Amino acid sequence: RLDRIVTGLLCAKGAEAAKNSPTCDVLIVDRSVDVIAPVIHEWTYESMVHDLLDVKNGVYRYKITTNAGEQEKDAVLGDDDSLWTELRHAHIAEVLTTLADKTRAFAHIGPQGTGTRDLTTGQLKRAVEALPRVLEQRAKLSVHASIASEINALLQSCALSEVGRLEQDVVYGDATSKDIAYLFNTLDEKGIRLPMVEKLRLLLCYVASHPQKIDAAEKSRWCKQTGLTASDVD
């Protein structure tokens, strides 16, 4: 369908004219043109936060341990959070590296790192004036370190990196249903229980990219390999 739309645009403006002049055409298409995007895993920080964590209305709830015991706190993930705006569109691997680097950098700020005995009066004054900003940045860093840690734990426990690679192979036609069944069996042997929602997402990726291969035998194979019911597959 998308090919027909592009062909129609070229015919309307003339193929030669389209080749010889820049174009600024914007295609607004129905979701039915790309049914895979809503189910395949997106690996940017913001997408993984909303996909994997229980974040409602942009509020992330987490726990901290203080002298008074364990407490629940809320963090708003929005434009007022400079770290969120910096990292939200980055790949999760880049986010983990960036947060680790920032944590190491903050470890050298303040009395724990540089010490205050050798500071001049002017340097000490500037350090005190900067303290509220430093503490705020440290607090935000702590929040995002908690988020990243939670995401990373889910990636490991559910083998989502392996699932994500297989999703890409399935969508691009480099993997078949046999590869999906092999992954499920391999994870079972390792004692990794893939959540049913992840199995369904893989199934939807396969169905969307291989609609001509879904027959009764294929449905039966899926039910056997995944534990899905016939109604799930239908």
TrEMBL record:
Similarity field: Belongs to the STXBP/unc-18/SEC1 family.
UniProt protein name: Sec1-like protein
Superkingdom of origin: Eukaryota
Organism for this UniProt entry: Ostreococcus mediterraneus
A Pfam match: Sec1
PANTHER family from the UniProt entry: VESICLE PROTEIN SORTING-ASSOCIATED
Gene Ontology BP annotations: vesicle-mediated transport
Matches recorded under Gene3D superfamilies: Syntaxin Binding Protein 1, Chain A, domain 2
